[in-house]
Amino acid sequence: MRQHRGGDGNDVYVDFTIFYQIDPARSGQVLAENGPGANYERYWVRDYGRAVMRYVFGELTTERFYVAEERDRKMRAAEK
């Protein structure tokens, strides 16, 4: 995610990586529902990940975002 608006309206930038794997047993369903290429990654993995990060980190004010313990706690929540 490139940009995040904090709970106080300020913009902060968060860089994160999502590692995922499509279950081979469901790959046909994923292809049928999303089409070929990177559509699944673009429309589900990236967009859903961005939404989760905005929701979780959006609870922090800009000052609290820069407190490592607060940020780490939110990161663990986002991972779940």
Structure write-up:
- The chain contains 4 helices and 2 strands, in the order E-E-H-H-H-H.
- The mean pLDDT is about 85.
- It has helices at about 25-35, 40-55, 60-65, 70-80; strands at about 5, 10.
- It is elongated, with a radius of gyration of 15 Å.
- A hairpin with a 5-residue loop joins strand 1 (about 5) and strand 2 (about 10).
- It has a two-stranded antiparallel ribbon with strand order 1-2.
- Structural class category: mainly alpha
Radius of gyration: 15 Å
Number of strand elements: 2
Count the DSSP helices.
Answer: 4
Order of helices and strands: EEHHHH
Measured distance between first and last alpha carbons: 17 Å
Helicity, in percent?
A: 40-55%
State which percent range the strand residues make up.
5-15%
Main sheet attributes: strand count, strand direction, barrel closure: 2 strands, antiparallel
Mean pLDDT: 85
Please state the overall shape, judged from the principal axes of the Cα atoms.
elongated
- Assembly category: single chain
Poorly predicted regions are none
Strand order of the largest sheet: 1-2
Core attributes:
elongated, two-stranded antiparallel sheet, 80 residues, single chain
